[in-house]
Write a structure and sequence with these properties.
The strands form 3 sheets. The chain has an 8-stranded mixed sheet. The protein has one domain: 4-Layer Sandwich (Metallo-beta-lactamase, Chain A). About 25% of the residues lie in helices and about 20% in strands. It is built from 13 helices and 16 strands.
Length: about 375
């Protein structure tokens, strides 16, 4: 069994992964969406038996409210929910200086500026020894050179390889940490959806084809690629997950060029397209995070998009068009919401013309689930 669920997370990510041999389910949680979306995640957890609410890993990919807001709520309610974590991966303020490691609980400099009052304190309360344990408490960062090797094999056999960030991305974030946290609304107390309007994003106006009528796939795919430059997004964790011969690319909000470079450094993938079973589009399908080079670097049928389209109106038409043009035959698009920003891809004529299928949840509160072994 290997199942990826994109839970309803508003304009963010909340990725629930289950894997196992059929007798025991192991779980990973990657981000928790916005604080406003957390009640849905709480319901999902409460639906589990009280003695089976353990996650092998919680990943908080980076400092943006649509990824971190619900994580704060989850860690605050951890004890009342009966949730436990084997490890927690998150690059905090201490990790932005090369060589920085998680300090001992009694250390005076345990809390970084602003964020320390919230997420760092909550992670440490769960056990400082679990924080970035795969890196010995240090930064989760892609090595500067050489083939990329798996970072961790989790209980049950799930293997994870880190593809982002590089040290350069963490270096850029370090002097901006305080401002980035304020823009993400990470202050004592839950972040709100309204805080997202302060996110450090630079989105260009949508093309007409993004919103009106059937999109012109060829024209949109041919639009010049302008890479994302938001500093917090550049620091995002991105992972290659492998289990029982199946592989998924879980991108967070990582930069496309960083992912392309990392994929080329995987052993046995110096030339050609990496065979994948699923790709979660970076930054919710933003035009600045899905380049033609990235799509061409992989051979994948299933492309997942996590967003309800609020705030930044993702996914962008250019990103979806690049997937359809360069993703090969039989592409399947999986959306965890139906919204005015993605419903144009449901047109049957468009699907027949470009040889893809689009999948949406039957109800808004369901999200979308993909069985990789089904």
């Amino acid at each position: 069994m290997w199942r990826i669920e994109l839970l309803p997370a508003e304009f963010g990510d909340a990725i629930w992964i289950e894997y196992g041999d059929g007798q025991r389910a192991h779980r990973i949680l990657i981000d928790c969406g916005t604080s406003a979306a957390f009640p849905r995640l709480r319901e999902r957890i409460l639906a589990l038996p009280e003695d089976d609410r353990h996650f092998e890993l919680l990943v908080v990919t980076h400092v943006d409210v649509d990824h971190i807001g619900g994580s704060l709520d989850l860690l605050r309610e951890r004890e009342s929910l009966g949730v436990s974590f084997g490890e927690i991966w998150f690059n905090g303020y201490v990790h932005l200086t090369p060589g920085g490691t998680v300090p001992q609980p009694e250390a005076a400099d345990l809390l970084g500026p602003l964020q320390g009052e919230a997420l760092t304190e909550l992670i440490v309360a769960n056990g400082a020894n679990k924080w970035n344990a795969a890196a010995g408490g240090g930064a989760l960062v892609v090595p500067a050179a050489g083939p990329l090797q798996p970072l961790r094999q989790l209980p049950g056999g799930m293997q994870l390889t880190l593809l982002s960030p590089t040290q350069a991305q963490l270096d850029r974030l370090q002097p901006r940490w305080h401002a980035a946290c304020r823009k993400a609304g990470i202050v004592p107390g839950a972040a709100t959806a309204a805080d997202a309007r302060q996110l450090e994003e630079d989105e260009e106006p949508a093309e007409d084809d993004d919103l009106l009528g059937d999109p012109d796939v060829a024209r949109l795919a041919a639009m010049p690629f302008k890479p994302d430059r938001a500093i917090p997004n550049g620091s995002s964790l991105a992972l290659l997950a492998e289990y029982q011969g199946r592989r998924a690319l879980l991108t967070g909000d990582a930069y496309a060029p960083v992912l392309v470079d990392a994929l080329a450094r995987l052993p046995g993938n110096a030339a050609g397209r990496l065979q994948l079973d699923a790709v979660k589009l970076s930054h919710h399908g933003s035009r600045g995070n899905t380049s033609a080079d990235l799509v061409r670097a992989v051979d994948c049928r299933n492309w997942l998009v996590s967003t309800n389209g609020k705030i930044f109106h993702h996914p962008d038409g250019e990103a979806i068009a690049r997937v359809l043009r360069d993703g090969g035959a039989g592409v399947q698009l999986h959306f965890n919401y139906r919204s005015e920003c993605n419903e144009m891809w449901a047109a049957l004529g468009l699907q027949r013309k470009h040889g893809y299928t689009a999948r949406y949840p039957a109800n808004e509160g369901e999200g979308v689930c993909l069985d990789l072994d089904g």
